[in-house]
């Protein structure tokens, strides 16, 4: 094997001019004079392009709708997961309390015979009362915050009602509601 190497070296040394790397065929690629020509689109490609152009506004709308709905769905799933975790390890006496609160709701439905308004108000009121008995601190906080907003709404409603009724009363009495200059 060494002798073959020497023979090759010996052959190379007989050449009078040294070879450059670009002269060796192993390191150079022959020059090509070809150009890439885009093939014409076939019937299938044209159909797909037309379909894409037609469907593009709908896909854009679907992506926008998906991006709007995705956070809401994720929060809903997170709420469900939190509820599952809570119910998996509930606090002491949770299920008896939930049973009593649910029973008062059913009792409210049974007591509310007649109008639809009674069927809405009775169960909600009875469940609220039984819930406030079991959770008084939270009920007080909710009552305070909602009581303030209910009072504000009542004052606004009273003012609007008074404004609607007062011009009618003045015209009934014979006085003009607005003095003319």
From TrEMBL:
Single Gene Ontology BP annotation: cristae formation
InterPro entries (UniProt xref): MIC26/MIC27 (IPR019166), MIC26/MIC27_animal (IPR033182)
One Gene Ontology cellular component annotation held by this UniProt entry: MICOS complex
Location(s), subcellular: Mitochondrion inner membrane; Mitochondrion membrane
One matching Pfam family: ApoO
Protein function: Component of the MICOS complex, a large protein complex of the mitochondrial inner membrane that plays crucial roles in the maintenance of crista junctions, inner membrane architecture, and formation of contact sites to the outer membrane.
Quaternary assembly: Component of the mitochondrial contact site and cristae organizing system (MICOS) complex.
Protein name, entry field: MICOS complex subunit
Organism per entry: Seriola lalandi dorsalis
């Amino acid at each position: 094997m060494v002798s073959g190497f020497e023979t090759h070296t010996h052959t190379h040394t007989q050449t009078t001019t040294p070879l450059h790397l670009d002269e060796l065929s192993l390191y150079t690629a022959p020059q090509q004079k070809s150009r890439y020509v885009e093939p014409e689109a076939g019937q299938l490609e044209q159909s797909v392009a037309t379909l894409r152009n037609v469907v593009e506004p709908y896909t854009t709308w679907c992506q926008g709708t998906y991006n709007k709905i995705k956070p809401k769905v994720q929060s809903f799933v997170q709420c469900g997961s939190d509820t599952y975790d809570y119910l998996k390890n509930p606090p002491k006496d949770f299920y008896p309390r939930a049973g009593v609160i649910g029973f008062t709701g059913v009792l409210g439905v049974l007591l509310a015979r007649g109008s639809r308004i009674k069927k809405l108000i009775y169960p909600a009121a009875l469940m609220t009362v039984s819930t406030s008995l079991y959770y008084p601190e939270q009920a007080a906080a909710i009552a305070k915050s909602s009581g303030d907003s209910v009072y504000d709404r009542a004052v606004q409603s009273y003012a609007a009602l008074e404004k609607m009724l007062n011009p009618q009363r003045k015209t009934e009495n014979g006085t003009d509601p607005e003095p003319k200059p």
